[in-house]
Amino acid sequence: MTKKNEVLEWLKALVIAVVLAVVIRTFFFAPIVVDGQSMMPTLNDQDRMIVNKISTKIGDIKRFDIVVFHATEDKDYIKRVIGLPGDHIEYKNDTLYINGKPYEEPYLEKFKNEVIDGPLTEPFKLEDIIGRKTVPEGEIFVMGDNRRYSKDSRHIGTVSLEKVIGKTNLVYWPLSDFGFVQ
To answer: Which residue ranges does UniProt annotate as crossing the membrane (predicted)?
Structure first.
């Protein structure tokens, strides 16, 4: 009789653990693998990160956060939020302007210092890309940190918040890169 109870207790514990894992992964946190070099030097190809799925509303997502979103039916992208709803975005002389104000992007300094053949980020205005002067309500404008080699809002347009899976800033693998990224 005690052997049967012990097996039952182990089965209950296992079922509870599996249900908890599914709930946590579905609604709260999930692992993601960086695929490609579009976020270098901030993130490297094959870095493993945790995605916070709780913060997917516009009040939770801030400018310069790193987000993961469904780019296509079978592909998720990881990019940096540059523009929020209502923002006017422009790039000129390798400087980001949001609503007419220049912004520094310290995460780009390493690449900017290495570039010898033109700007890191080609000049553009938001209206040239999406035909509107400002980022539409319920959408964000995203770019990869490796500006010359990133497929981002300059190519795919703004991203609906409904497609955002969550924010990420914790690298857990490789251990040598473990920590929070900016």
So the answer is: 13-34
Determine the Cα–Cα distance for residues 145 and 111; give it in Å rounded to an integer.
9
Residue 162: what are its φ and ψ, rounded to 5°? -65, -25
C-alpha 168/C-alpha 80 separation (Å) is: 10
pLDDT tens-digit readout, 62-106: 999 999 999 888 888 999 999 999 999 999 988 999 999 999 888
Instruction: State the catalytic residues.
Output: 38, 79
Distance between CA 146 and CA 55 in Å, rounded?
25
Q: Is 80 exposed, middle or buried (0-12, 13-18, 19+ CB in 10 A)?
A: buried
How many Å apart are CA 134 and CA 138, to the nearest integer?
Answer: 12
Count of CB atoms situated within 10 Å of the CB of 119 = 15
In the predicted structure, residue 1 carries a pLDDT above the cut 60: no
DSSP string, 111-168: HHHH--SS-SS--EEHHHHHSSSSPPTTEEEEE-SSGGG--SHHHH--EEGGGEEEEE
Per-residue pLDDT of 38-73, as tens digits, reads 888 888 888 888 888 776 666 688 999 999 999 888
Q: What is the reported pTM? A: 0.82
